[in-house]
Amino acid sequence: MPANSPTLAAAGPGVSRTFITPRMNEEIETNLAAEVASVQEIDIIPAILEIVCKATGLRFSAVARVTEDRWIACAVRDEIAFGLLPGGELEIRSTICNEIRDHGQPVVIDNVSEDADFCNHHTPKQYGFQSYISIPIFRKNGAFFGTLCALDPLPMPLKSTKMETLFTLFADLISYHTDTQDRVRQKNAMLQIVQHKLDDSLDDIRQLNKISNHALQEPLRKLMFYSDMLLTDQSASEETRQFARKINSLANNFATMIRELAHYSMLGGTITDFNSVDLNTVLAAALHRLQPNIQAKKAIIYTDVLPTVPGIAPQLNQLFTT
């Protein structure tokens, strides 16, 4: 910050104040720092400032973030040892940009000493420039962001060369790039949220697999164990054995479905998961599993010879079963 920047006194009696908590102030600082950094990340900014200086003859140019109480240099090209670096600040009320923020209009000065509006203005006197141009930068939503400005200690014919048009085009270009970066950051933030949700879902799936492979399989194993006991019991009637066979078959099918579901949920989807699968075998297994439903509905199934294909057997079993 230049050594001759003034320190303004605190607001006097009767002046309204907005009280900002430390947390609010921290958030404001974080947002401002992000906005300044976003401009510094735009690759074309140095080229814009170089073109501005060469086209106008002015030897200092900058992109500034301007708020109600801050003037922050986002990017700077300094050929006159003005002493301001990127991230540096000027006292907001010592700048013309503060007025531009209020009225939203460009300011172009060829020669301060001959300009009726600015010959007695405090800003040229404080910073020692004679020629000056500053164009407001508006975001696409209409919000004021800051300015693209340039100055020099010597007078320069800025109005006659229509430099305002060139600066306006550059200001629109800067606005476009800052908005694009904001959208990219928002999308990245959304992707991070989605990634967190995906990680949570994977944790849930792992928990489900743990339950499936243990808590749900155990009662099925018991069902199959007791139904096997009935099948081998010589004193059991044929009707009892028939029910036992149905219980055994249904429990076995259910256990297979649980294993296939667990396998499906953990598949990575890579080509290494594929093997040669005989679809005739898959179809026969599906028909066997669905036999009770087929009999109950008196369905007729027509089949033909099926090929062997590269695939994932458990998933193909699910395909034919469902």
Quickly list its features.
about 325 residues, Beta-Lactamase, six-stranded antiparallel sheet, 9 helices, rod-shaped, disordered N terminus
How is this structure best described in words?
It is built from nine helices and eight strands. It is of the alpha+beta class and 322 residues long. Helix content is 52%, strand content 14%. It starts with 21 loop residues before the first helix and ends with a helix. The radius of gyration is 38 Å and the shape is rod-shaped. The strands form two sheets. A six-stranded antiparallel sheet has the order 3-2-1-6-5-4. A two-stranded antiparallel ribbon has the order 7-8. Helix 2 runs antiparallel to helix 5, helix 5 (163-232) packs antiparallel against helix 6 (238-265) and helix 7 (279-289) crosses helix 9. Among the domains are: 22-187, 2-Layer Sandwich (Beta-Lactamase); 270-322, no CATH class.
* DSSP, total strands: 8
Please list the strands of the largest sheet in the order they lie side by side.
Answer: 3-2-1-6-5-4
The CATH architecture of the domain at 22-187 can be given as: 2-Layer Sandwich
Helix run count: 9
* Helix percentage: 40-55%
Straight-line N-to-C gap: 72 Å
Give the class-level CATH name of the domain at 22-187.
Alpha Beta
**The biggest beta sheet, please?**
6 strands, antiparallel
Structural class of the helices, strands and pairings? Answer: alpha+beta
At the fourth level of CATH, the homologous superfamily of the domain at 22-187 is GAF domain
Tertiary shape: rod-shaped
Are there runs of 5+ residues with pLDDT below 50, and where? 1-21
H/E order of the elements? HHEEEHEHEEHHEHHEH
Q: Residue-averaged pLDDT, rounded?
A: 83
- Indicate the CATH topology of the domain at 22-187: Beta-Lactamase
Radius of gyration over all CA atoms, rounded? 38 Å
What percentage of the residues does DSSP assign to strands (E)? 5-15%
